[in-house]
Amino acid sequence: MGIKVLRAGLQTTVQDLGRYGFQQHGVIVSGAMDTFALRMANLLVGNNEGEAALEITLMGPRLEFEQDVLIAICGADLSAKVDGVPARQWCPVYIKKGSVLSFGGCVFGCRAYLAVAGGFAVKEVLNSRSTYLRAGIGGYLGRALQEGDVLTVGSPAEWSDREMRKLAEQSAGMTALGWGISVDLFPSYGTNPTIRVLRGAQFNHFAQESRDAFLASPFKVLPQSDRMGYRLKGPKLELSEPLEMISEAVASGTVQVPPEGQPIVLLADRQTAGGYPKIAQIISVDLPVIAQAKPGESLRFQVVSLEEAEALYVAREMQIEQVRQAIALRYR
Amino acid sequence: MKIYPLGDAAAVIELGGEISEAVHRKVKALSIQLEAQPIPGMIEYVPAFTTVTVFYDPYRVLREMGVQLSEAGMSGLVSPYRKVHDMLERMVAEIGDEAEIAARVIEIPVCYGEEFGPDLEFVANHNGLTPEEVIRIHSSAEYLVYMVGFAPGFPYLGGMPEAIAAPRRPSPRLAIPAGSVGIAGKQTGVYPIETPGGWQIIGRTPIELFIPDSNPPTILASGDRICFRAISRQEYMERKEGGR
């Protein structure tokens, strides 16, 4: 009994907040691309914010619920429907056993997160339930979901369990609870977004025209973009003179430029170290924004100061703490 | 020594400007110190050739250091990076550079050339050598594992003879098979899993370098010494079938 995959979708994987602590052994972090959406989806169903959820990419799966569940879908709007009826996002939704969740056209964004009260009971590998596709570990058998897979649901928190029992008596099919995450709290999601960056360690090694072009021109997201990184196409970025680089650690959001001159933004499945010059680093609060950019969209980069990035980071964490407290109060 | 930010949630400590065993010992010493006494808010640290990068949660740095956060957030407060910077600076000043480097020597068998090493010819031509000379030079040196990174269990090795150095490919390959042995600049290494990469591939090993069910999940660690041994296609096949 659990959640049965009737159709897999383009790429649906189990992800949590990432596999930390093993980068010194070369094990990548993985985890959700849009951590804000993952955290919100989990909080809405009474989970710990880092519980494993499904990351659903562009074309969503078709899932049959073999038990009553409380779910929340956050992030991209991929036209979720339960038994053909549009399902609300960014709020808890109760779904009765036997219902089928399907996805349709992509209204906004690239990745939706489906959390279920109790989380997905998949084995932890190196302290995380994230799927690391290239190594074939974590998540559901180390791979994306396939037709016929059955995901087991863990034990829900006491309040969400209580809520489900209450709704089971009143509800015939799907019931969206009348509250959720306010749009005001969203990251600066948008189509063709402007992404805020800090100057990278080698920013000043790029030719002046390249520095100017990096900050003034749109960059197109190429189809080869994936969880490892976004390959961008724009003006050719060149160093003012050749630079001998020694490999060192890279982070999520590092914008590196290989010799061909087109930037690559490293993301959740990035390697742990890199040897290409780093022109910029995306600020933490804008990582969910770039995670929702689709191939074919254009990005622009805007420089901010470290202090500004830090202030935004702290403000975001304080907001999330308030959400956590508000949800706890609601269900006490 | 230099400390600089890698975005808003990581700091890089640069302990030297060149790849050398002396700088490696400093990297190792700082790693040991960070393992023993993580700084407040630290998530993990990643040692490399000349750097150690500390990943931290800026919010937790402030919280764990007892900084009061107002409704307005951190406006007017000291930046988390500043706090991290100062803590790391003090830590580096206190450590010596006499860290022990393990004396383990690990042999890695490699089948060079043909379909396992499509860039062997390029490396030979680039250096005015024959493929056989490249193999002999590559497999007669002893290498130091400076760092493990890029992919799980991928060793960055020092000690490669400059006679076989070769530039990275101008555009990275999208998929390099597991076990591939490559050269980039003056570095050589082994790809433990299939991955994209820009190195020149000269051969392949049947040995598994990444074992996810064990902790640590790799057979090589920073500080190990390794050597490569040329093996035949037949030995490659036998070892591949027989496991390790």
Automatic annotation (TrEMBL), chain A:
<dbReference type="GO" id="GO:0005524">
    <property type="term" value="F:ATP binding"/>
</dbReference>
<dbReference type="InterPro" id="IPR029000">
    <property type="entry name" value="Cyclophilin-like_dom_sf"/>
</dbReference>
<keyword id="KW-0547">Nucleotide-binding</keyword>
<protein>
    <submittedName>
        <fullName>Antagonist of KipI</fullName>
    </submittedName>
</protein>
<feature type="domain" description="Carboxyltransferase">
    <location>
        <begin position="24"/>
        <end position="319"/>
    </location>
</feature>
<keyword id="KW-0067">ATP-binding</keyword>
<dbReference type="InterPro" id="IPR052708">
    <property type="entry name" value="PxpC"/>
</dbReference>
<dbReference type="GO" id="GO:0016787">
    <property type="term" value="F:hydrolase activity"/>
</dbReference>
<dbReference type="InterPro" id="IPR003778">
    <property type="entry name" value="CT_A_B"/>
</dbReference>
<dbReference type="Pfam" id="PF02626">
    <property type="entry name" value="CT_A_B"/>
</dbReference>
<keyword id="KW-0378">Hydrolase</keyword>
From TrEMBL, chain B:
<dbReference type="GO" id="GO:0016787">
    <property type="term" value="F:hydrolase activity"/>
</dbReference>
<keyword id="KW-0547">Nucleotide-binding</keyword>
<keyword id="KW-0378">Hydrolase</keyword>
<dbReference type="Pfam" id="PF02682">
    <property type="entry name" value="CT_C_D"/>
</dbReference>
<feature type="domain" description="Carboxyltransferase">
    <location>
        <begin position="1"/>
        <end position="220"/>
    </location>
</feature>
<protein>
    <submittedName>
        <fullName>Inhibitor of KinA</fullName>
    </submittedName>
</protein>
<dbReference type="InterPro" id="IPR029000">
    <property type="entry name" value="Cyclophilin-like_dom_sf"/>
</dbReference>
<dbReference type="GO" id="GO:0005524">
    <property type="term" value="F:ATP binding"/>
</dbReference>
<keyword id="KW-0067">ATP-binding</keyword>
<dbReference type="InterPro" id="IPR003833">
    <property type="entry name" value="CT_C_D"/>
</dbReference>
<dbReference type="InterPro" id="IPR010016">
    <property type="entry name" value="PxpB"/>
</dbReference>
